[in-house]
Each structure stands twice: as C-alpha cells, then as structure tokens.
C-alpha cells in the first residue's frame, strides 16, 4: 500500500482518472440506470397487456353466461314449447333443444322446483319465477350433478395433482362441478307459472377455454417462442385449461399457489404480476368468479410465457453492453493520447517544484515556445519562482530588524502585565467584599438574639408601667421603630449574604416621609455637633424602593455631612417632585471633597476618614439607589461644602 500511495498521488494518474471517469464510470452508471428504467417500462407494458387480455376473457365469460340465459328465455317463450306442452311431447322437445343448444341439462319444473333445486335455494330459479330470466355461475356437488343429468358427476370429477406451493389438502379429487346455470319463466297452458332451467358443465370444457385463448391470443399477438394460456378454476383447482403438464397432457387437477389463492379468493383482489404456473413463469392475471349468491366460487386466468421477453431483455442488455465496450475500446486510446500532451508539461512542473523544495531556488521550467494553457502556466510558474527568490532575499533582510520589533513587543507585554496587576487588585477587592458578606451574615444572626431580648423587655416594661408609661410613650415608640429598623437591617444583611434564603418585593413609599424619619433618628448626632438642619419636603409622589434601604442611604449621607462639619454648620435636606420622579438632596457647609477624589468616593473601601470609616457607606448607597433604578451624584468644592443629589424614578403604574 505504501508503494502505491506515491503512484496514486501523481499528476499523471489523477489526470488519467479525470479523463477516463466519464467513459468508464459515469457512462456505465447512466447506461445501467437507463436499462433499469427501460426494463421497468417493459414490465409495465406486459402488465398492461395481460390486464387487457383478462378483460377480453372476462367479457367472453360474461357474454357466454348472458347468451345462455337469453337462449333459454327464447325457448321458454317459443310457440314450439307451447305446442309441445299442449301435445304432451315436452320430453322429446326438451331433448331436441338440449342437443341444439349444446346444454348438459334442461328441464321444466313447477314453482316448487325439483329435489335439490328448489327456487328458495337458488337465486337463478327464484329470479325466473319472479318473471325475469336469470343466468349465473354456480357450484354443484356430485349428487346435485347426477340429479340434473345422470353421469354428469363422473364427467365433472377431476383427480388432484400434487402442485408445488399450493395450499396443503387431504382431498384426492375435485368432485364438484362449475356450471353456467340459467332459468327462464314459463306459463303453462292452464295458466300456472313454471320455469325452464338448463345449463352447461364447465369442468373439462376444453372447447370453452380454447375459445377464450383463441380470442385473447391470436396469431402474431405474442413474440416467437411465447405462448398464451387461459384457465378456469373451481376455487384453486384447474377444471379447464390449455396449460400443459407434458406435450399433450393438460394440467387439469393442478392447483394455484397459496399466494395467488390468498389474494384472489381470500381478499377478492385481482392478481397482476408474474407467477409460476405449473412448470414455468408466466405474466399472469387472475380475477375471482362470483356465483349467483355473490360468493367467490373460482378464478379466471390468462397469461403468457415470460421467458421470450426475459431473453429479449437480456439480449438487448448484452447488445448495449457490447456496443459500449466497443466504443470504449476505440475511444480510450484517443483520450489517453490527448491526455499525454498535458502530462509532460505538468510532470516537468512537478519536478521543478521538487528541486525548489530541496533548496534549489534557481530551478525553472523554461517551457518551449508553444501555445496552450499549460505552457502559459509553466511560464507564469517561472515568474512566481522569481518572485519567491526575491521574497527570500527580503525575508533575510527583515530578519535583521526582528530583534528591534521583539523589544517593542516586550514593552507591550510589560504594559499588559501592569494592567493584569491592576485587575488582580480589583479581584482582591471583590474577595474582600465577599468576605465582608460572609462576616455580615454571621454578625446579623448574632444581632437577632439581643434585639429579641430588647423587644421583649420593652413590651414587659410597657405592660408593668401601664398608665405610668404615658410620659415616655414617644421614647417607647422610637425604641420600637429602631428595634424594627434593626430587624429589617438584619434581614437585608442576610438577604445580601444569602439572597436565595430571603426575598421581598419593594413597595411604594414617600421619600419625604422617609427623610423626615431619618431626621428623628439622627437628631442626637446633629445636636451633639451643633449642626442646624433645614428641610423642604414638598414631594407628593411615591417611588418603588425598600423603605429601610432608602432610610439607610439617607442616614449615611446625614452622618457623612455631620462628620464633615466637626465645628458645626448647616445641613439642608430637600425632597421635591422632578420630571418622572423625585429628587432628594443633602447639602452641607463642611470641608468639601477635593476634585481628584470625587470620582472615587463611591468605590468600595475608599475613605478619607482613615480609621474612622470602612469605605463601604457610599458604595452600598450607590448600589441601593442604582438597584431601584435611580442615580446618586455629588458636587463639592473644598472649604465650601458638598451637595449630594438622589434621583428616584416613579413607577409607570403609580
């Protein structure tokens, strides 16, 4: 396999494959597909022909049945029958008519019929008594046959012949008979109704089946070597056929295959396909025959030998194959000669490429002066090799300046490393925040217990004091509010630490009311630092935010303002309606914030209070306001104070 691989990868072999593929691959495929389609069409035509043949045979059987009834009706209405009835010579007359019409039985009977043939049991007889002649195919057993005509059962009996693929049976002979059963109404001279019944036996009726075969398969209707056949079946037994077992022995008593029997007699369908008939394959058509009661009593078959058609198709295929091989034998050498004119220049280019790969950049094709695409490609390839040689020289020159470029890239790497260190510092801050969250969760759990004790003792004190608690009711109420606030803050801390365990939807609140409550909570700090608080609470709108979160933000701003005015000052707090929301402001007259620090005051852990603060107050406030859909901004001048503005949007459904 390793030895063949270079050969299979050569240009010569590939071009040969390209040149010969249409002739040796595509053409055989096209020829095979065309032959298959042609064969399929031929099979369709054969099925169409046998369908037409079956129609002719069926029409003949139907016409024979109808003619039998018409003839019997003509006799029943004839003057000669009336004369015979009057003269008392009915038996002689019926014998003459039976012979003249070629019937196997003929009798005249009254309304009660005769033994075994009462009108109530036979639709043909009952229809004739009703006044209309009837004719149909019926099946009679041996006793009924002998009742109609002595010796008729012996004529009908056919020994069964073992047949391959037939349904197994224990019978050795078919003793029943298939007849064309006809009857016509007769009026007796005394006016009483009667009927004239007659018919012919189809078992061993070779003239009947040969007539069908002659009608269907006339001379030159089939190709030489083919043979048309017709058969009448009593159920699945051939009772009249021109199919031969041997040279002059008809295949009476042989049986149809189980597959055909199941489709035609079992399901009542017509069989149109090839079938194995006795000893050879035939293009066959079978249809069920219905008796006078509408039951499937047998089958009618026509068909012709498949062998001549199969041989004709085989001969056609062989002729087409031989013609193709002859054309290929004549054309392939011509194709190879034309392809050789392409092989040589391409092989020369392949050799040049091999020399260049081994380091010989001076190798060239130098094609001879000739027209043609391959020669132009070879010349162009030489031009490309010249360019490659020039590029190699330039690459050597560029290699000398590579170190300088490496130095530049090293500087870029240093800058990238510096940025990575900054990113690492930010990650450290994120880790600190995560640690604070875990610590906060544990601390919040510990706060819950003393808060519960405080609330319990407060309720106990109010209960014990009773009416004496009225002077300090306001203080008790403030303690209740602060205990509740502690509980809410603890809940929010736990929600921040493990939000999957604590959840709650923000409600509608009045920012002005929250700001007023915050002044009550921070009154002690304001008075202790001699800070005068001035408020303008004109807002009437509501916003969607947690009350305790907004309270936390405002308390943080108030305490930051107090710490910025250690010697006293003025704090202005406002709550005003703004377009599409509410604007809260906190303006102090403190020390102010330097311009270079104003962009960092909302960063986590950034503080200007050194050991007095954690640097999380404004960061958390910024997060809470942003989560509510608002924004917080700052304006400050060193020595003149700071102004914080909080904008909170009003909900659309408020």
Please tag this protein with its features.
single chain, about 650 residues, alpha+beta, Heat Shock Protein 90, five-stranded antiparallel sheet, five-stranded mixed sheet, 17 helices, elongated
What does this structure look like?
The protein has 17 helices and 18 strands. The chain is an alpha+beta fold. Among the domains are: 63-201, 2-Layer Sandwich (Beta-Lactamase); 364-400; 505-649, Histidine kinase-like ATPase, C-terminal domain (Heat Shock Protein 90). The strands form five sheets. Strands 8-7-11-10-9 form a five-stranded antiparallel sheet, sandwiched between helices. A five-stranded mixed sheet has the order 13-15-16-18-17. A four-stranded antiparallel sheet has the order 1-6-5-2, with helices on both faces. The protein starts with a helix and ends in a 5-residue tail after the last strand. Residues 498-505 have low confidence and may be disordered.
